Every structure is written in structure tokens, then in C-alpha cells.
Protein: Acetyl-coenzyme A synthetase
Amino acid sequence: MSQSEPTAAAVYPVPDAFAATARIRREDYERDYAAALADPDAYWARVAQRLDWFVPPTKTRDVSYALEDFRIRWFEDGVLNVSVNCLDRHLAARGDKTALIFEPDDPAKPAQRISYRELHARVCKLANALRNLGVKKGDRVTIYLPMTPDAVVAIQACARIGAIHSVVFGGFSPNSIADRIADCTSKLVITADEGLRGGKTVPLKANVDAALKMPGTNSVETVLVVRHTGGAVDMQMPRDRWYDAVVDDQPAECEPERMNAEDPLFILYTSGSTGKPKGVLHTTAGYLVWASYTHESVFDLREDDVFWCTADVGWVTGHSYVAYGPLANGGTGIVFEGVPNYPNVSRFWEVIDKHQVTIFYTAPTAIRALMREGEAPVKKTSRASLRLLGSVGEPINPEAWRWYHEVVGDSRCPIVDTWWQTETGGILISPLPGATDLKPGSATIPFFGVQPALVDANGAILDGATEGNLVLLDSWPGQMRTVYGDHARFIETYFKTYPGMYFTGDGCRRDEDGYYWITGRVDDVINVSGHRIGTAEVESALVSHPLVAEAAVVGFNHDIKGQGIYAYVTLVAGEAPTEDLRKALVAHVRKEIGPIATPDFVQWAPGLPKTRSGKIMRRILRKIAENAPDQLGDTSTLADPSVVKSLVDERLVK
Ligand code: PRX
Structure:
């Protein structure tokens, strides 16, 4: 699968009809991009006025990436509340407008429409309940919920009282929940009896029970349990409380906490190249400015749009473009509990017709999987309501892009291929649909205020059409502020590789039109179906199995998932590899991390290729996993070059 194409690639100009009514046209983009660089203080002070403040900021930015004098602060003396911005300020003009449309997993069940007034009341009730349970400003709350409006309510309720939420994706295992609770010492967990995905139940409460038996989790005082499926759960009193019993009788008004611009809003754990997932910390004002401004601009938002971002709230895309951005903009968003192929592979398109979705934002992996099913499941639906499509999470190969454009969008809808990261809070490189000509496979050009650059291995900035490592030369309001509890790791991970720059971990090409083509991670992070998995995490899960002596994990190109997980495993002396053991190891990784970390291949490795100083040479392992044994390069520095031959001979993809 080719991730990028020659620069002579087809260009899709902005459709005239789109440009005619667009919020931002080419000349607006050029003017504002230049203005944001020329006088960032003036530019962002103006943009910050899109929020409602208790006390407007008098300071705009205070940023230094210099290691000895490091700081990132935006709007630092402003005072505001995020939930007031997402809910209260819409009540007068949009109280009856639909804020969220809930489409359940089972299409036979009724969809729900929740107005801004109703959402406000639900958020206030939960916020009051949380306060009654002793949750105060700055306390951490872990949210482990299915993709239902309750998840958005929980997020907004935390924001209302200044509690820092940490959403854990419902597909993560008890171990992963426990690690995340322990890292931020959560006081309270909000979960549901069970989740529902593709007709199957997910034992959410039971997973929380298992997590809370693990070491380091005794900070949790209360578990609030939403009745979702009605499935049986163990309630351990007084720790566990039914959500409805605690929340339903609360007042529907709740005094919002006055938050400083730089007070933490949430922690979201994401994988890096080393160690355990790190808690990416976002703060209040800069994050909301970024989520709302990018949402409005990149998606060319109109008052009557129905915006559907298919991401789960367990990921950053679900934070910025389900739970925060659309609500801050007074938009109507869809919350979809299900999956693209249940009960059939037309589900996405049927939901688009059912709710008259105008903007649809999903991941390349879903497009590729649905593309495989052919055009018929798409073409039997209308999709006439659509006017804009979006892509996020991984590079979209030009073939999938064209299918998305022609088949899903009937060649009518522009596609915004949005590049960003958990760390960036929102979109950084993307077309603006009324301003930017498109090239399939390219995330195109930077958003206002974003200064990408490509550097070589020594950090020298490269000019013109070239390829290198993607860095950002200056801050933007939505930038993460720290790794929760480990500021040194924040600096080390992002600002030490290339001093004075933020290093993204991505490789990238720039063509002669200045368009950016992300080529994928250059660190030890694998992007599986748009989800980040650290090779170190999978390796440590594998070696925690008693029969495993050593493991090395690499990514390989996968037709549907973008990348898959390929593991090399050395067993302890005397253990014979068997098919049963292979299955047991795969099951063990699923149990330790969650199904998203399932290895696609486990190859038995009598030995791993190492340098004389004992470092595993992943470059060689990657080439073997990619079935490119003729590209191994120099193996002469290996401690024992003979191990390579046996790995090549036994490789699982030929
Ligand atoms: O490698 C890039 C890839 O996803 C990484 C960020 O992953 P995460 O923090 O989980 O956030 C995903 C949703 C924003 C990036 O370092 N990535 C994300 N969007 C794109 C992309 N790669 C290419 N094109 C994109 N549009």
C-alpha cells in the first residue's frame, strides 16, 4: 500500500459551489495565516474572544521552548468555565436546538435527540452529585463508559466542577484501567454495567472491579454505575453507587467552578516509544479555543449542520470533536455507539441518511474496510445530505481517498485529511475546504498559527520539496502542557531531540507546492487502525508471561489496519513452541492491554538480532516482518549475525 504519491498527483480544486459560501476562502486563509505569524498576540487575543470569559485575559501568550527557561502559557490570567462555554451560553438562542443525537448500537432501538437545555440539566445534575460525593476542583475522575451521551455528560460535568477527567477507552483491559487510575490517583470512577458494540456486550463494571483489586488503585472512593444494558453486576457497597440513585434527584442547576485559563482540564493517556502510556495533560482555555476554532474552520461549520465524528470519546478525536468542539460551537453532533459493520456494512451510510448528516469524519481504516465490501452497500443509500468528509488518525492512501471521494461523497464533497495528535489538542495540518485544493493522500497545509518544519537527523531545517522529521517551531493554544506527574518526561520526549522545537514523532514529505504528506511514525510507536500502541508496551506484556524470555515487537504495513503488530518471541530455555502457546501469548497480550494490542503475528525467535552492546536491531526485524529480507542492510555489527538467517527462513509473511 503506498502512503504517498508522486507530486504530480491529481489536484482536486475547491468546488466553486463550496467556495461560494465557505467561511474561509483562499484569500482569507493566506491573509490570516500571515497575520497569525506576524503578530500572534493580536491574532490569538482576537480568536480568544470566541469564548465567554468570567474574566477576559489581558495576556495572550508566554512561550519558550528553551530547555533552561521552558514554559507554555496561553491566556494565563483569563478565568472561564468550559461547560459554560459548551452549554449555558447556548441556552438563550439554542436551548431547544439538538446538541446530541444518540444512535444506539442496535438500529431497531430508538435514536435519542438531546437538546442543549436537556444536556445542560443532565450535566448540572451529575456535577452536583459529584460535588456531593466529595469531588473538588483538581481531583481526578476516571471515565470508563460506552459511547453514549452519558460519556459526554460525564466529561462536561467534570469540566463544570473543575475535576480533571481521564477517559479510558472501553476496549482497554482491567490492567490498563488500573495503571491509569494509579498514575493519576483518581478519586472516583464513572462506568456502566455493560457496553454494547456490534451486538456484543462489554463487561465494563466487571473490568473496573478487576482493576480496583490491583495495586495502586485504592485512591478510588466511589464508583458510579450507569444502568445501560441492565446486565447483572456486583455492587460493592458503599463504594459502588447506581448513577440514577445518586444523580436523578439533584438540582438541574449547578454553579460552575471559576477556572483559570491554565488550570488542567483533562488527562488522556497515550502510548509513546518507551515505557507505559503517558498522561497527556491539556488545560482549560487554550484547549477549548483550539478545539472550537479548528472545528468551526476546518469543517466550515454552519448553524444547521449535523456533524458526525465516528471516534469514541476514549480517544482524543472523541474529546475534541465529539465532547468539546461541536458543543462549544453550538453545533449538533452524533454520538454513535455501534461499529461500521453491524448489523451490516451499510450502517454508516444508513445513519447518515437517517439523521441527515452533513459532515462526516472518520478514520482511513474504516474506509479501507468498507471499500473492501464494494460499492453496492454504499450506493443503496442516498447520502445526499453530505457536504463535507473528513479523515483522521493515520495516513489515508490515495486509493482509499479516491473511493471515499467518489463513492461515499459522489465526487461532490471535499475531503479534509486532518493531521494532529493527542498532544496537539486539535487539528494542525489540514485543508480548509473552501480554501485549499486537495491532493489525495496529503494533509496539505498548516492551520493558522501552525509552523511545521522538516528537519534532518541532526535537527537542521530542510527547505523546499524534501523529506524529513516533522517538527513544530512554535506553540499553539491547544498544545499539551505536560505529562501528568512527570514534567521531565514531557521535555525529554518532545523538546530534547531537536532543541528549540516540538518533535512530533512523525516522518513527512513536503512537495513543491508546500503540501505536507505524513509518512508515519519514525519512533517505536505503531499506528494500528488509527490507535497508537507502543512496541515497548506489547513487549512488556509478552515478557510478563512466565514462558517468555524475551520479545521484540515491530509494526508492518497492513491493508486494512494501516499497520499491524508483529512480535518475535524467545521462550525460556527448554520450552518448546506450540500452536497452543502462541494462542496463549496472544490472549495474554489482549488481557494485559486490550484487544487493540492483539499481535497479528508471533514468530518464534531462537535469538534476536542484537548489537554487541545488546541493543535489539529493530530495523532488521521490521524488514523481516515486511517480507523484505533483501533489504536488511548491514548486519556485520551484530553480535551474532547467524540469528538473522533463521529469522528470515522462518518468517511468517512470504
Ligand atoms: O502518526 C500520526 C497519525 O496519528 C498520530 C497521532 O495519534 P493519536 O495521538 O492517537 O491521535 C490520533 C488522532 C488525531 C500522529 O503522530 N496521524 C493522525 N492523523 C493523521 C496521521 N497520519 C497521517 N495523516 C493524518 N491525517
In short: The first strand starts at residue 61 and ends at 64. Residues 270, 316-317, 391-395, 417-422, 443, 504-506, 518, 520-521, 527, 532 surround adenosine-5'-monophosphate-propyl ester (CB under 6 Å). The two ends are 16 Å apart (CA to CA).
